[in-house]
Amino acid sequence: MQNVTRLCQTKSIVTVNGQFPGPRIIAREGDRLLIKVVNHVQYNVTIHWHGIRQLRSGWADGPAYVTQCPIQTGQSYVYNFTITGQRGTLFWHAHISWLRATLYGPIVILPKRHASYPFPQPFKEFPIVFGEWWKADTETIINQAMATGGAPNISDAFTINGLPGPSYNCSAKETFKLKVKPGKTYLLRLVNAALNDELFFRVANHTLTVVEADAVYVKPFKTDIVLITPGQTTNVLLKAKSKTPNAKFAMSARPYATGPATFDNTTTIGILEYKKSASASSSNNMNIPLLKAKLPQFNDSTYAMKFNQKIRSLATRKFPVKVPKKVDRRFFFTVGLGILPCSKNQTCQGPNNIRPAAGINNVSFVQPNTALLQAHFFNRSKGVYTTNFPTNPPFKFNYTGTPPKNIMLDSGTKLVSLNYNTSVELVLQDTSILGAESHPLHLHGFNFFVLAQGIGNFDPKRDPAKFNLVDPAERNTVGVPSGGWVAIRFLADNPGVWFMHCHLEVHTSWGLKMAWVVNDGKGPKQKLMPPPADLPKC
Hints:
The protein has helices at 138-148, 301-309, 372-377, 505-509, and strands spanning 2-6, 9-13, 25-28, 32-38, 47-50, 76-82, 88-94, 104-110, 124-133, 157-160, 177-180, 185-192, 198-203, 208-213, 216-223, 225-228, 233-239, 248-256, 268-274, 290-291, 329-341, 354-360, 363-365, 410-412, 415-418, 422-430, 439-443, 448-455, 473-475, 477-480, 484-492, 496-502, 513-518.
């Protein structure tokens, strides 16, 4: 625990090595990482290496009660994995309850030695990690919300590299500053580590060039504004102006929010400053104006859709797109909100003893009290999980139109079982139950290809004609459009149990999650390794 002061209030937060945000991990493609995590706090802890493929090393993936029991107070666990065929920006974060509010940091994977970027070599690189800050204790907030069946309190600020910036009370001193030299090009490694908010980001009077998303190179494109959901990473090039301007420039981020609920409608600001040449006097530095960055309306879903459609894979000989051309299994998943009855030990705020919940295909996922991967590996799934997760919603309705009368969800620990090397096509459909909303869905253990997205209900007859099989974006987290759908494909070439969930933490808490069991293949390199000896016990 570490005392940290923000917004004029000091609170004790969970940190790694006393640092907030946590330390940056720098590695190279092909490196093996050994990360010892020792738990000195009163909470159970796990760490997830978000976006790392974890080929055959599912024991190191980190989601609590999915691939491991949490590390208990006074215990430790060594995360042991190799970064295979990946380079770029990812991040690590806690993967239990809401601890990732303060437990997160960037992962920078450099290309192999003597390999270059497929874009101009930047002069310098900087991580820009967006976070979300509560004055109150986040564990108390979510625990109270789960107990009362109410919605958890919204955050008080957003942060850039842990700093809220000048738009918040007494935070002018806590502002991230980026100092640049005229004419130089900088690589900004953007990470959205916020809990519950997608973000628009803009640097005043500067154009950004997007070159990578979720640690996969993309066809470079210029944009003034970047949209980034929780769980996503985006690398952008920023070219400094050739002459030192007589201004400072706001680097601003604020939410893209589509749901019916209240949200933290504040703006975090960092400052881009030009380094003065030796001849320029430093006396006039105080009265240099700060130019503001104009951002889209908070609910501008048209802008969001247009931005996401610009992200395309490089699809070159050196960086090919391995999108599965044939499909073995097709799934149609509705994602969205609903209601559940309150349990006996809850004192529910809601009417008729019901509480808001969330689910996929009408199933609100129940977290087991033992780890799914162990149950799978040792053939002890009985009483822990079933593999009858529905392939389609239990009944058809106008998903993005008038909701059905009955919006009660089922609950259970249901998984989909896949044979090794199955190619999967999955359509994720938002619903308007309790309000349409954009849901950033994250799949562990794989990258998937984003074939198409659209507004309204997916049409299985007409929409597949629009699927891009040439240069689709390859990602680990995708925003399911508000009141719309997205189609993805992935190859189940990684044996294990792989979590898939909404990366808005409130929805994950409410049950918008499920898991895929990928069975071992025949060959020796197609099997999950046995668990490490220090795997935590429940």
